[in-house]
Amino acid sequence: MGFPSTANASGSDATILSSRRWWTLGTVALAQLMVVLDTTVVNIALPSAQHDLGFSNGERQWVITAYSLAFGSLLLLGGRLSDLVGRKRMFIIGLVGFASASALGGAATSFGMLIFARALQGSLGAMLAPTALAVLTTTFTIPKERSRAFGIFGAIAGAGGAVGLLLGGFVTEDLNWRWNLYINVFIAVFAVIFASIFLDKSRGRRPRPKLDLPGTLLVSGGLFFIVYGFSNAETDGWGSPLTWGMLVGAAVLLFAFVLWQLRARHPILPLGIVLDRNRGAAFIAVLIAGAGMFGIFLFVTYYVQSSLHYSPIQAGVGFMPMVASLVVAAQLSTNVLLPRLGPKLVVPAGMVVACIGMVALTRLGLESTYASGLLPPLLIVGFGLGLIMPSAIQTATYGVEGDFAGVASALVNTSQQVGGSIGTALLNTLAATAATAYAASHLPPTPEIIAQAAVHSYTVGYWWAAGFFAFGAVLTALLFRRRGSAPHHHTGAHAAAAVAEDTEAVASQHGSRSGRGPRHAAASSQEAHDGDLGPSV
């Protein structure tokens, strides 16, 4: 009589554990949405904020740059702190801090106050974003659940920018530019409540390793110089000594960082995480996709508002089919394609699809309509990004030991941030040069010629973005391991130990079954490994 009772209790507990994991996903999704929204929602508010606070066009870029510099340079530090301090604690600190900085920015009475708030937002976002992904990585270890979770997370990561354009349009037109920042406070309140209830406290190593201070300073400085260098190239051009000085300084600092990591006792980034072939390929895929995505958000936004004269709300709504396509592809890639084919086929296929969509965008003109001209390319690019982002993110974070899940997650965010900075600077510069050359060759500069020059510049941007994706398709196809290739185990042994440890803990607490993925023996562990990302990882 006791066995059925025990089994029932065990099944009930397993259901509770599974339910708790999905609530954790909802909490992480809220935090990720808040961070991703902020990269675009503020862009819509800039003209109104500029009019209200009275800052110049030259100063306007710093509202975006202040956030990007702080966010991009501190991501690895934020990820490592989540490993050392505890993910639940860092997650809540990041949420509260990000919401407070957002409220400060919304209440800004001067340009300086707004810039300070945006830099503070970026700093706290760098604590929050990698911690959120690390929570997801360590929570979902059962292959099927992990695939669904990363499909949702990847869809949010890819589509959040477009959602931000829509939300920013509604808020700016119907309320006030300040509510583009205040909205984070309401999201954070729910996320903090859910985090307090559903997030488990992570268990770090004992004794806890020290923070690698020299490594932190070197990598933070290097990333700061990269983001600043490309941001400066966007505004001052590639001939600026400051641009090249920053980029050369970044190369020197990052080279010194690598040398230091080879000898550091407690490295902030064990190089084995990056040197694993599949994981390194995934980071590169995220970087290239991040650069290419800005070809969509930057030039399509300009096109629909300047050339087709859409309102901000109409522009945001116009991106929604792309979001839907991305979400569908994200679920398809992580739940069906990735377990069967592995990243070597899925990620390059996504690059090819996105490249085709970018080429289709080059056909747009002043007379194009949304339904026949813009909608099909948006659907194609969205589908391509949905194949790339969740698959690459899942591959990049798979198999990393728990003590380094935060820093591996930070590398994903860093890759996307650096890719976005590179894409924005390169594409904007190339487009501006193309517009100037077109106007110079079609004199006199009538309004119609100027409008055509703008469309021509967007076309050049789309072609270059298509080139990014084509290059990414070739590179990732070469870098990802073939199916059946033996993976490197720089961190696998530690991951297996963590799985075994958690299995014993859950089994002792709940009687008969574990809540982790590889839960019976070494053979089952390998099966789960293969089922998660296919035999290619």
Overview of the structural elements:
The protein is mainly alpha-helical and 537 residues long. It has three domains: 19-200, MFS general substrate transporter like domains (Growth Hormone, Chain: A, Up-down Bundle); 212-267; 273-482, MFS general substrate transporter like domains (Growth Hormone, Chain: A). It is 81% helix and 0% strand. The chain has 19 helices and no strands. Helix 1 (2-37) packs parallel to helix 6 (143-174).
Q: What key phrases describe this protein's structure?
A:
537 residues, disordered N terminus, 3 domains, 19 helices, single chain
Secondary structure elements and their pairing?
Blueprint: H1 2-37, H2 41-53, H3 57-85, H4 87-106, H5 111-139, H6 143-174, H7 179-198, H8 213-236, H9 241-261, H10 271-275, H11 277-307, H12 312-318, H13 320-341, H14 343-361, H15 370-397, H16 405-440, H17 447-479, H18 492-510, H19 522-533
Helix pairs in contact: 1-5, 1-6, 1-7, 2-3, 2-6, 3-4, 3-5, 3-8, 3-16, 4-5, 4-7, 5-16, 6-12, 6-13, 6-15, 6-19, 8-9, 8-16, 11-14, 11-15, 11-16, 11-17, 13-14, 13-15, 13-19, 14-15, 14-17, 16-17
Given helix and strand content, the structural type is mainly alpha
Strand % is under 5%
Question: What does the overall shape look like?
Answer: globular
CATH architecture of the largest domain: Up-down Bundle
Q: How many β strands by DSSP? A: 0
Oligomer description: single chain
Q: CATH superfamily of the largest domain, called what? A: MFS general substrate transporter like domains
Rg is 23 Å
Amount of helix: over 70%
| Overall pLDDT score | 79
Rounded to the nearest angstrom, the distance between the terminal CA atoms is 45 Å
Helix and strand pattern: HHHHHHHHHHHHHHHHHHH
At the fold tier of CATH, the topology name of the largest domain is Growth Hormone, Chain: A
**In the residues, how many domains can be counted?**
3
CATH class of the largest domain: Mainly Alpha
The largest sheet, given as strand count, sense and whether it forms a barrel, is: none
